[in-house]
Amino acid sequence: MLATAMTAALALAFPADGNSDQWLARDVSGEGPIASFLSWNYSNVITRAHCANGQVTFQYFYTFPEAPSPAEAPLALLIDGASHRLTPSVDDMDRQVYTLSSQGKAALRRARNVDLDAPNEADEPWYLGQAAALVDLAKRCG
User: How far, in Å, CA of 89 to CA of 100, rounded?
Assistant: First the structure.
């Protein structure tokens, strides 16, 4: 009986999110917290976020034959329906990264639903769900 009550309490505290199992969150030595969103079959990393100097930055890995260049296809996070454009740049390791604005980071810290508007064959946003790993990363990021 106690186990049933505890399970019910956990279910209420952590509501089911179909995309939760596609998220990996780890603390990486030298980088701090990271959150990675995997494809539906876990074979590819779609996006990886981490905290760099107090800013939430993303790398976008998904490619397909007709994929536009990063300059031609800006990325955005849709946080509870509001669009927050990601600013492209190159980091100190010559990687293409996208930075979320401070307003976007504030919105992400209290997000209930997150989508990533980025190029893919379906021409639809990636539905990231509640993105608890990403929300936690934003909360921990300066």
Answer: 11
Q: What residues contact residue 105 under an 8 Å CB cut-off, 6+ apart?
A: 55, 56, 138, 141
Q: How far apart are CA 104 and CA 89, in angstroms?
A: 17
Q: How far apart are CA 138 and CA 106, in angstroms?
A: 8
Q: What is the 3-state secondary structure (H, E, C) of 99-122?
A: EECHHHHHHHHCCCCEEEECCCCC
- Count of Cβ atoms closer than 10 Å to residue 78 Cβ: 18
pTM above 0.85, yes or no: no
**Hey, CA dihedral for 112, 116, 121, 123, is it positive or negative?**
positive
* Cα–Cα dist 107/27, whole Å: 22
In the Cβ-directed half-sphere of 4, how many Cα atoms lie within 13 Å?
1
Write the DSSP symbol of residue 31: T
Q: Round to whole Å and give the CA distance between 131 and 61.
A: 18
Give the pLDDT confidence of 62-104 residue by residue, as tens digits: 988 988 877 788 899 999 999 999 999 988 888 899 999 999 9
Which amino acid does the sequence have at 131? Answer: A
